[in-house]
Amino acid sequence: MLNDWLYVGIFALVSMFLPAAAISIAALLSPKKPNSVKNATYECGMETVGPAWAQMKVQYYVCTLVFLVFDVEAVLLFPWAVAYKQLPLYAVAEAILFILILLGGLLYAWRKGALEWL
Amino acid sequence: MSFWRDPIIFIIEWAKGLLAGIGWGPGWATTVGFVIGAFVLAAGAMFFVVFLIWYERKLIGRLQDRFGPNRVGPWGLFQPIADMLKIFTKELITPSGVDWIAYNLAPVLSVAAVLMMWAVTPFSKTFFGVNISVGILFLIAVGGLGEVGIILAGWGSNNKYALVGALRAVAQLCSYEVPFVISALVPVMLTGSMSLVDIVEAQNPWYILVAPAAALIFFIASVAETGRAPFDLAEAESEIVAGYNVEYSGLKFGMFFVGEFLHAFTASFIFVTVFLGGWRGPGADQIPVLGLVYFMIKTFIVYFALILFRGTNPRFRIDQMMDLNWKVLTPLSLVVIMVIALVDRLFASSADWLRTVILLAANLVILVVAERLIRRGVKTTRPEVGSRQRPVASPDNLFIQPGSGAKG
Fold this sequence. Notes:
Helix content of chain B: 55-70%
Oligomer: heterodimer
Strand content of chain B: under 5%
Mean pLDDT of chain B: 82
Low-confidence stretches of chain B: none
């Protein structure tokens, strides 16, 4: 069991190491001739106006909030799904009720216009 | 164990014997074995990308009525190798004002996130990196790491196009994660385990025959997760230059593409593992290497479908993409999971084949009803943009230009 996670950890390190190593080799092989024009921010040849880290559309934030609800729901449902074979009808009905409440939440967000992309 | 029945495990056992022969303790031997195994699997995946790039370019070329790469080597097979050699010697331009850590971590993370999915997938009955008890959850979690890579790229680049692209990517990937995760619950429910090895072993028949609605949602969501056409809003060239990778060059840019190609292939073999029976096929239980062959055949069929999907669909608009997710796929997946849970529980005591047929019928009913509802909601007329009648050139004879002297 612990060995399995050791392998996962090693694999994570290796899979980070391989692209990093490739980029390092490329950095050694490639020419380095920077100049100020080449290093300027690329906006199709226009001069950049203002900082790049500017205000963005709020809609991205709203949809991420809706996402958060459903992801937490999924995390709660996974143990239920694993145990599903042994569960009585009562527990299944409970989970369905839980999903229905969330579906109600989705409909509420829909009617409130949180899902409209303007 | 004979060599030909299972060559991969044969070689692994031989290497293990070799390591044990050196005289290290069992702990060290295991660790070193793991490191070597992980290196071989991950490096194999990275080199496999070279072939995938050729395959995809060739197919896309055919779909668009071109030849695709056909100069370097037989059928252009060595074209990606030549490209790879070239990209290694390209200058890595680091624009001024970037967030150095985020900028350099992003390409590494976006490849690593995809590579890590290879650690838990069973390629045949005996050949898999590791069998952890939370396989599917691990896949989803690691997939989320790719999103982190994209937002790091967009944020670290100090470029407005990159930031817009990254935000779009995150909105898209986050949204499509919901139907992805919820439809992944269905195989877990039918198996009673999250381990991918168990899910493959339990598929009798394949889950796409038991729950086609869930499989369809899973497929669409996993195409969206890979961020390819028609879901490639994050790098929509006609709108935001190249999205989150505008400021990257050389191999750092190449790494995003390696990640993308590998993700497409990985998504198709995850679909195969979860819904198409993985390595299962006639004789795969006795001869494990046959399982690997079946697995690859199925994966390439799904990958082909993925490329067809890419080659034939125009890019979505962002509001259409969000609508498809939040107003179609998410409610549909919630309904599917409820119906499957209820139906499977009500018919739990009946015979297996009867339960399968009833589940299939329930899924098909859901799909038909959903299709009807979608058709009702679709706008059939589009508002006229601009009210004024515009003068449009409409000559009587197209071949004679007005004012050219010829009588038409």
